[in-house]
Amino acid sequence: MTRPGFAWALPATVFFVLFAIVPLVLVAVLSFTRWNGLGSPEFAGFDNWNRLFDDPVMVKSLWLSLLLTLLGVAVQTPISILLGVWAAGHQRNRAVLSAIYFVPLLLSATAVSVLWRALLDPNFGVPAEAEWLFGDGNLFGSQTGAIGVLVLVGAWQFTPFHTLIYQGAARAVPPVLYQAAAIDGAGTVRQFFHITLPQLRNAVITSVILMVVGGLTTFDTVLILTQGGPGTDTTISAYYMYQKAFKGFDFGTGSAVALLLVLVATAISLAVVRLSGYDRMRSTSEGL
Q1: Where are the transmembrane segments (predicted)?
Q2: Is residue 273 part of a domain?
Q3: 232 φ, ψ to 5°?
Q4: Side-chain half-sphere exposure of 65, counting CA atoms within 13 A
């Protein structure tokens, strides 16, 4: 079987160039200008970048973005793997329970954030009715509480997506491996750690890269739940970009932040691919 010709990829290539490459180039150009949204941009050289790295809020926002991304990976990965492997089985009522669990994946991030903001409201939400568990009930009043809420909401919404990845990967594991392990006396737990997890390696790498990119570009959840507060304790880089560009009308600095996020996300993703050996793996269907 021969490979499809380039014409098959042409529509997707044109779409990607128009809506990804061209905007990225324009953002890169704007990052070297001064522009308030009116008139013509003025060339500013590296002024925006110099002020960016001298701004303690920007440096803090980058570390917060990395922290939230790391916590998201640490929380969502094990839960997604366990749920994905379970959903790939043949348990009773598995299909119904899986469908119910995947409902958050169908909701927009805005709707999810509004829902959780109401549920965790310190005056009228669940914390107000369970002071024995939440104390004063104001989870948004401290950095630890606010970050915890962001991690919880992110996991609630996006864990189902990564569960789908692991579910598909788990179903692709050859049953003969489990049959051979069972003959050798390996139980369910041993089969999971010695057969299932190694077979999910590619899925884990793919899922982690998606989490990294998603975590570094999270915006609407922070905008609705914490508004970067308390103070600047949850002002991640994407929200800082919004503040600079659309509230401070400094589109040059905002573009610099956006471009920096792209570079950081790309660098981390490439590092994960390189260190994991994912780029050296080959599919059994290679060349089809």
Answers
A1: 7-32, 62-87, 99-119, 139-158, 203-225, 251-273
A2: yes
A3: -120, 25
A4: 29
